[in-house]
Amino acid sequence: MASGGLQLLGFVLAFLGWIGIIISTAMPQWKMASYAGDNIVTAQALYEGLWMSCAMQSTGQIQCKVYDSLLKLEGNLQATRALMVAAILLGLVAIFTAVTGMKCMKCMEEDQVKKMRMAVFGGVIFIIAGMAALVATSWYGNRVARAFYDPFTPVNTRFEFGSALFIGWAAASLAILGGAFLCCSCPRQETSYPPTRGYPKNAPSTGKDYV
Asked: Do residues 124 and 167 lie in contact, with contact meaning Cβ atoms separated by under 8 Å?
């Protein structure tokens, strides 16, 4: 029962992490314009994401523009996109794989060993998906930080971390933690020894000797 509860907890955490990765990928707030230093606070806030850039007016109105061409984007941005999309697809595969191996499901009940391996395999895929999202968000955040502290970057073009980065970091951590719980939820198999054979009992003597 304890391993089943740990397995369910791991799946829920990993699933929430996968949802967070999707939300982070779709959000345009991967970086936001910084108004630190000598910047003049304008009447709009600028955001940039993986797919579009947005400007939010002081009235609350948001105007977004999708990036025109994929080939005109920086290679780092394209790599970040690819890692996040790969994390989403891997998470989808991990969900179906882990659900098949869950103890509360009736799939593959006739072979508990294969069922256990499916749960572990799903956990491993969740960990890989979380690592892909963690690498993508950390790589993007490192580029934002380096550009912010670069003295050659104009003050009015500096950006800070957006909320999508923090959501991505939290989601990647949940996916990795949930995958680890899935991998550790299966009980260890106890060593089974073959049953000892009983020696045949001597037949009772009838008192007659046969020649």
From this structure: no
